[in-house]
Amino acid sequence: MKVKIGLMQMSCVKDKEKNIQKAEENIRLLKEKGADIICMQELFASLYFCDTENYDNFALAESVPGVTTDRLSVLTKELGVVIVASLFEKQMEGLYYNTTAVIDADGTYKGKYRKMHIPDDPGYYEKFYFTPGDLGYKVFETKFGKLGVLICWDQWYPEASRLTALQGADILFYPTAIGWDESQDEATNREQYYAWQTIQRSHAIANGVHTVSVNRTGKEGSMEFWGGSFVCNPFGTVLYEAPHGSETNTVIEIDTDLTAHYRVHWPFLRDRRIDSYNQITKKYI
Fold first, then answer.
1. Residue 152 annotated in active site
2. Quick one: CA dihedral 117, 126, 216, 134, positive or negative?
3. Residues 101-133 pLDDT 10s
4. Which of 139, 207, 215, 222 would disulfide-bridge 167, Cβ 3.0–4.6 Å?
5. Catalytic (active site) residue 232
6. CA of 195: how far to CAs of 79, 145, 200, 231, 247, in Å?
7. Region 70-90: what's the mean pLDDT?
8. Which entry of 4, 39, 42, 220 is annotated as an active-site residue?
9. Is residue 194 very low, low, confident or very high in pLDDT (cuts 50, 70, 90)?
10. What fold characterizes domain 2-270?
């Protein structure tokens, strides 16, 4: 099936309402360009607040489903597009998640995925804010195919992409917020970006599925979010790569039927030795 993927790579401001309005405008623009599925970056409704440990930032959280997903549902029904929307979820006082909601083209809320791998590094203090996901790996049946959704730090873990692909995902989506610290040199920046892209292209190859990664752009504090959103086919070929330092709303057509082609000719799933993998569940062997 041929599907047109809309990538929304944008910068954000402190005002949450302005970010949501900007995203709504971008959704309309991407629909005009023919998008069937639109993926937004990680935590699109706010600045990337995890660069500091600040209790005031918990006020940004909301229920999922809730006000923002309801608002997006109205838009998806009007436009006939599927939306992958990353939000800061509040389940109850003291229990918060980094969550992505999937809304179908008829406005139906299909469900949510809660980020499983939570980083804690300089500039990315996510363990201060987020509880590790408790819903497992998820695939969502939509008008335009089965969507597997993972989030940012999940990108580095082949187990996450494998378990999602084994549930029948046609496409893997990775809403993302990652950047370069202003203190880094250009060689380090290049190395980090290409490692980030390469690991996701490897997930596409190993699982035989298209992979879509949507990152934010713009400078926030000492971090320059590197953009570079991209789409690759089931053999890791990059079909589109966004610029690093600017916003973009781009639509790329993919053909999910290519999964069958690549899996037949490169039968990695056939040759898996699941009987030999039991030790993978151990921290150390």
1. yes
2. positive
3. 999 999 999 999 999 999 999 999 999 999 999
4. 139
5. no
6. 36, 29, 9, 15, 22
7. 98
8. 42
9. very high
10. Nitrilase/N-carbamoyl-D-aminoacid amidohydrolase (3.60.110)
CA–CA–CA angle 90, 70, 93 (5° rounding): 15
Sorted by where each begins, the domain ranges of the chain are: 2-270
pLDDT digits (tens, 9 = 90+) for 38-68: 999 999 999 999 999 999 999 999 999 999 9
Q: How far are the Cα atoms of 81, 109, 124, 155 from residue 74, in angstroms, in the given order?
A: 11, 10, 33, 30
39, 152, 220, 232: the catalytic one is: 152
Nearest alpha-carbon partner for 132 in 102, 108, 105, 160: 160
Catalytic residue among 115, 220, 224, 232: 115
Question: Model pTM greater than 0.85?
Answer: yes
| Residue 39 annotated to the active site | no
Bridge-partner residues for 176, per DSSP? 215
207: phi then psi, degrees, rounded to nearest 5: -110, -10
Of 50, 64, 39, residue with least CA distance to 135? 64
